[in-house]
């Protein structure tokens, strides 16, 4: 598998802590998913220019475990924009150890719906 670091900057960077481990001693996949959801929400809200809510997670793939002490770096790009929704492609990379070696750990596509102040769907400007 050939992996290429995404271009641009990480939308979110956070350190994996001991409180987030599963019974096998790796970081719980749900924690990684929640960090990706936060990052995707940032990207989607910027594109929609409004608040957003997650409506779907597609093609989620856990490639490698995240370890305690890894710095989880999440990169996001807008994949598609609909009338009221934004799909964001997310790639999570772990920066590991003192050598600062990066490995892709998770990927997925998260879909968000744009919301108005009352919490109703709203159109996204596609110009």
Name a few traits of the molecule.
5 strands, Acyl-CoA thioesterase, alpha+beta, 1 helix, 5-stranded antiparallel sheet, 127 residues, Thiol Ester Dehydrase, Chain A
Number of helices: 1
- Rough outline: elongated
Report the strand count: 5
CATH superfamily heading: Hotdog Thioesterase
GO cellular component, one term: cytosol
Keywords: Hydrolase
Protein name: Acyl-CoA thioesterase
GO molecular function: long-chain fatty acyl-CoA hydrolase activity
In words, what does this structure look like?
The structure is a single chain. This protein has 127 residues and is α+β, with helices and mostly antiparallel strands. It has one domain: Thiol Ester Dehydrase, Chain A, CATH 3.10.129. The chain has 1 helix and 5 strands; from the N terminus they run E-H-E-E-E-E. A 5-stranded antiparallel β-sheet has the order 1-3-4-5-2, with helices on one face. A hairpin with a 3-residue loop joins strand 3 and strand 4.
């Amino acid at each position: 598998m050939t992996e290429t670091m995404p271009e641009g900057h990480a939308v979110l960077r956070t350190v994996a802590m001991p409180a987030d481990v599963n019974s096998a001693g790796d970081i719980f996949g749900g924690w990684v998913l929640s960090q990706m959801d936060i990052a995707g929400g940032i990207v989607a809200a910027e594109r929609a220019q409004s608040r957003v809510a997650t409506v779907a997670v597609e093609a989620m793939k856990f490639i490698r475990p995240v370890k305690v002490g890894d710095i989880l770096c999440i990169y996001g790009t807008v994949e598609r924009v609909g009338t009221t929704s934004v799909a964001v492609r997310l790639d999570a990379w772990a920066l590991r150890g003192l050598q600062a070696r990066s490995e892709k750990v998770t990927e997925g596509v998260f879909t968000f719906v744009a919301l108005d102040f009352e919490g109703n769907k709203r159109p996204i400007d596609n110009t």
